[in-house]
Inverse folding.
């Protein structure tokens, strides 16, 4: 392929460099488009064709179903590593040595206390508030209690802010659940590892001993690894763009939590289970729902199906499907919802509508089933996704700041009214 792309407008030719990524991806560099053409912009709603940055964090090939963090295959990491180690890799570019890991884990633990006044803010929420709304608000509120995490001047301050973020957000996530249940809030238990601690904070109640089940711990660890990063998706792009104004880490992550909440993004895992439950309640007629999903007059979509980037299979869904079978068998759970999910998948994968549009089960299709088996309530599913995605958001935020990227500010094509004279209300 040539090294330049030529754009011809009204007989005049403009040349733009073609740049290549390490995995052979190519992009037309249009940084000089407006300047050289006298104001032309590109129009790409939903950014389906637009690269917003270069990045060294995650490589994914949607056609081949490849997903790698810092060059390491997701499958190998999910099998052999653990969530906190993968978090370190994604954020700090290399797998940690033993010493680096020890320091990372202990620094995170040292920051796991939350200012008691944060509970006053939590008190203001109604009991039935969605935990994602609570998590986003409390994450933003952390800024007020940790002003140092806002104006980051050097790598050491960055390191400390990263450890604070990783320490405090799981505590807030567990508080969101406790609030909903009307139970007292737990604090971190620094004798446990990161995943054990998340489970204990969520499920321990004062009147009973909470016993950690290794099957549950391992399943959650693996599930969170699968969610760590997914390059420039909606919430990650949000974190980068908010951070590009030099807003602090907590403020940027809070915006990412809000972006993740939507049912077309992370909220899909909750929507999948609700959909499967309503199919079950409706007699389990899978074909009926396939027809609804195909009917363009019906707003119903098959939740957990389709992906902006994966047009063959979602590698995360493959790992999760296998894990769902293992976890359910090992915990001795028979979930009729899983049977409906399997039927739905089988029918959809044979159906012309889904084949033609390359719609396959995505990460959210099976993750909800595992969360259910682990005893995590439905409204907390997207919160679990947020905990999993946290290292990715942090890594992308750090990369954006270290690259000194300019403030994100897209253009638009104005198609509204031309100038009109203002008329006072009497004359309208
Ligand atoms: N059910 C039925 N039809 C669908 C679905 C679906 N789940 N997804 C896409 N389509 C159809 C869509 O109607 C369109 O048809 P046509 O070409 O006839 O107009 C075609 O497939 C292309 O869809 P699109 O909306 O243009 O594709 P997109 O890349 O903009 O959207 C998506 C991707 C994930 C938002 C979409 O597939 C969807 O809404 N899926 C359901 C929600 C979901 O599971 N989201 C989780 C995504 S993975 C985790 C994450 O990133 O958070």
């Amino acid at each position: 392929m040539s090294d330049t792309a030529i754009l011809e407008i009204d007989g005049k030719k403009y040349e733009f460099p073609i740049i290549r990524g390490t995995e052979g991806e190519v992009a037309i560099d249009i940084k000089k488009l407006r300047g050289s053409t006298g104001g032309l912009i590109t129009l790409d709603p939903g950014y389906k064709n637009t690269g917003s940055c270069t990045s060294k964090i995650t490589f994914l090939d949607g056609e081949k179903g490849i997903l790698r963090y810092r060059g390491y295959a997701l499958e190998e990491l999910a099998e052999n590593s653990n969530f906190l180690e993968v978090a370190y890799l994604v954020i700090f570019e290399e797998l940690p040595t033993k010493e680096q890991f020890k320091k990372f884990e202990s620094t995170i633990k040292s920051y796991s206390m939350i200012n008691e006044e944060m509970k006053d803010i939590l008190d203001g929420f109604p009991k039935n508030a969605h935990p994602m709304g609570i998590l986003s608000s409390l994450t933003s509120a952390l800024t007020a209690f940790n002003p140092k995490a806002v104006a980051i001047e050097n790598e050491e301050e960055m390191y400390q802010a990263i450890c604070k973020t990783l320490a405090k957000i799981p505590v807030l996530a567990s508080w969101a659940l406790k609030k909903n249940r009307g139970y007292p809030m737990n604090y971190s238990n620094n004798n446990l590892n990161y995943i054990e601690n998340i489970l204990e904070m969520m499920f321990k109640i004062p009147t009973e001993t909470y016993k950690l089940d290794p099957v549950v711990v391992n399943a959650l660890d693996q599930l969170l690894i699968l969610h760590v990063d997914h390059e420039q998706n909606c919430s990650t792009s949000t974190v980068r763009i908010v951070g590009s104004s030099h807003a602090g880490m907590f403020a940027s992550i809070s915006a990412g939590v809000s972006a993740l909440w939507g049912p077309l993004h992370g909220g899909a895992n909750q929507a999948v289970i609700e959909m499967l439950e309503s199919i079950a309640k409706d007699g389990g007629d899978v074909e009926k729902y396939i027809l609804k999903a195909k009917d363009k007059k019906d707003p119903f979509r098959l939740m957990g199906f389709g992906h902006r980037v994966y047009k063959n299979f979602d590698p995360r869904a493959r790992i999760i499907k296998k894990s769902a079978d293992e976890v359910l068998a090992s915990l001795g759970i028979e979930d009729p919802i899983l049977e409906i999910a399997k039927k739905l998948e089988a029918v959809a994968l044979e159906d012309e509508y889904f084949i033609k549009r390359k719609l396959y089960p995505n990460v959210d299709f099976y993750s909800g089933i595992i969360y259910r088996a682990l005893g995590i309530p439905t409204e907390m599913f997207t919160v679990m996704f947020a905990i999993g995605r946290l290292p990715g958001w942090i890594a992308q935020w750090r990369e954006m700041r270290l690259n000194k990227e300019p403030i994100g500010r897209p253009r638009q094509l104005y198609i509204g009214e031309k100038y009109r004279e203002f008329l006072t209300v009497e004359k309208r």
In short: The chain has a mean pLDDT of 94. Residues 214 and 398 are 33 Å apart (CA to CA). DSSP finds 18 helices and six strands in the chain. The radius of gyration is 23 Å.
